[in-house]
Amino acid sequence: MTVSEERLAVVRQLMTQANYDALVVPRADEYLGEYLPLHNERLRWLTGFTGSAGMALVLRDRAAIFVDGRYTVQVRSQVPSHLFEYHHLADNPQAQWLAAALPAGSRVACDPRLHSLQWYRDTKNTLADAGVELLLDTDNLIDRCWLDRPEPICNSALLLDEAFTGESSKDKRQRIAAQISAQGCDAALIFSPDSVSWLLNVRGTDMPQLPVVQSFAILEASEKMTLFVDARRLPETFYQHVGDGVMVMDETDSSAAFAAYSKHKVLADAKNAGAWVQMELARNGATLVQGEDPVLLPKACKNSVELAGTRSAHQRDAVAEVRFLAWLDGEVVAGKLHNEAELSDHLLSLRQQGEYFHACSFDTISAAGANGAMCHYNHLNGVPARLAMDSVYLFDSGGQYTDGTTDITRTVAIGDPGPEARRLFTLVLKGHIALARSRFPFGTTGTQLDALARQYLWREGYDYDHGTGHGVGVFLSVHEGPQRISKQHNGVALQPGMIVSNEPGYYREGVFGIRCENLQVVRPSTTSQGETPMLEFETLTLVPFDVRMLDTKCMDDEEVEWLNSYHQRVAATIGPLLQGTDQDWLRQATQIVGV
pLDDT tens across 270-325, in order? Predict the structure, then answer.
């Protein structure tokens, strides 16, 4: 019996003892964030799946795993098909699948700490229509099976100076409290740890890639704030740093503390905040008022200090990337074809030499050849592949710096990748350029811009199954909301100061992957004329694209002009920060190309 079979058997044994007919196992913890500490990787423990989004449904006699489009290839290589059926998260709603799979009278268990209130309500209603009951498993059945579960990490937080944040915590709380009052509420549930960390000007070190303090808070219209956190995470100077008005309580005491909000109107986001916290607030007499986290938009619209720091971080990051690309070319010419892990490690070593560097902003995607077709491939999940001549190498990486967060993907030629790879790369780059050059009126959403990046692929009958752009924080989450550029509807208008990625791609299973990604910030247009004020993008990332991957016959004059102008800017900005052969390589890589 394999490890996966043994774990499923133990889980089903406990399900039988508890009289559960099905168990919901999401990839989530009590903060509902994308990045999880090892002790909360329950879905990985059960299935072997290491992706960032997924859910397993375990029944007495069958099981299924649901993942999004980024992981349709990866899940088949990690999760045994004889144990789990494969389904798409969006195309196969899990509640409907359960309702169809289970007879009336069945009992489904879920941990309310690991789901939003909206998910809980919707799932409960869908199952009830089929005569199936949704039960609360607050002890978490998986935790009872996971006997060698890692111990939680609890490190002291970092306190960020206003030189990096541009605004004190007290001023932020005053600003957000005024919004709470304007919405007719007495308080707001600040559930997301990155919202709490931004509001208090603190950063965590428990999960280096996501530098947040694991916590949630309630901010009152009076500007008083209760922070629910393990106090061991707070340094001695915390109270002096945040100023008056912040009370700290242990998370284990949160349920009892909610009694203080009896008869209070508490603003809470049913879609994104935890079910258990909101149900406990309601049980203690609070009136929940549906509304978005009031920190999201202020956090997303970076101030001038945050943007200046981000620009500096991107310059240092570009130095590391260019030095890596120059080294890589030299190694290939010398016949040294490294494996994916060696390449990732070398890039990290170069980033570590930059000022203010803390950690990668996510696991580096270092993907040789066919592995690039898995959008979120991780070489740590198996034997790292070695580069091969006449192939494509895709690497998607980023850094967490005290003054900014970076995220960049480059697709490079190892030898001659062939005309088909060059044609597809050019279609992807054309979409990237179209989005980067776009101007749009105030009130435009990322959904309205998404087709600009896909249009050239669409013309040829191709597409990619992921969003075109996500928001990015400042020494915070590399995937930040509420803005995004995606086919999926998003009603949030792009506003000045918002940072978003621009990353169209193409993936041919078993052959290669292509992605061209820069970060860019929304700003008022500096050159547009006419009656309507316009917004545009300023590109933050300063690393050349590999012109050896280009088929310039597929490009028009304006696209070539944009690429040459971008490369000239890269050379002028990053060139003086390099020396010797690195500087020579950049000069060569940014030479003018023609149609």
Answer: 999 999 999 999 999 999 999 999 999 999 999 999 999 999 999 999 999 999 99
Q: What whole-number distance in Å separates Cα of residue 337 and Cα of residue 388?
A: 7
Contact yes or no for 366/379 (Cβ under 8 A)? yes
Query: CB count, 10 Å around CB of 576?
Result: 9
Closest to 464 (Cα-Cα) out of 494, 431, 490: 431
Whether 506 and 392 have beta carbons less than 8 Å apart is answered as no
Alpha-carbon 58 to chain mean position: 27
pLDDT in tens, 472-502: 999 999 999 999 999 998 899 999 999 999 9
Rounded distance between C-alpha atoms, residue 485 and residue 253, angstroms: 39
Q: Are 140 and 111 in contact (CB under 8 A)?
A: yes
Q: Write the burial class of residue 531 (CB in 10 Å: 0-12 exposed, 13-18 middle, 19+ buried).
A: exposed
The HSE-up count of residue 339 (CA atoms within 13 Å, CB side) is 8
For residue 184, give the DSSP letter.
T
Peptide bond into 112 cis (omega under 30): no
CA distance 509 to 450: 23
Angstrom distance (rounded) from CA 537 to CA 540: 9
Checking if the pLDDT of 70 tops 90, the result is no
Nearest to 567 by CA among 395, 433, 426: 433
- Give the Å distances, CA to CA, from 156 to 202, 208, 293, 466, 512: 10, 12, 26, 36, 42
Distance CA 12, CA 440 (A): 54
pTM (predicted TM-score): 0.93
Q: Which of 58, 125, 123, 113 is nearest to 85 (CA)?
A: 58
Q: In angstroms, what CA-CA distances link 121 with 59, 110, 134, 274, 464?
A: 21, 12, 10, 12, 32
**CA-to-CA distance for 241 and 349, rounded, in angstroms?**
33
Pick from 213, 189, 210: which is nearest to 274 by CA?
Answer: 189
Residue with tokens 């003086």: 576
Joined together, the tokens standing for residue 257 give: 């503390």
Whole-Å CA distances, 150 to 35, 36, 179, 209, 498: 16, 12, 40, 18, 37
Share of the chain above pLDDT 90, in %: 90
Q: Which DSSP string corresponds to 348-392?
A: HHHHTTSTTEEEESS--EEEEGGGGGSTT--GGGSPPPBP-SSEE
394: buried, middle or exposed (CB in 10 Å: 19+, 13-18, 0-12)? buried
The predicted structure's pLDDT at residue 529: 76
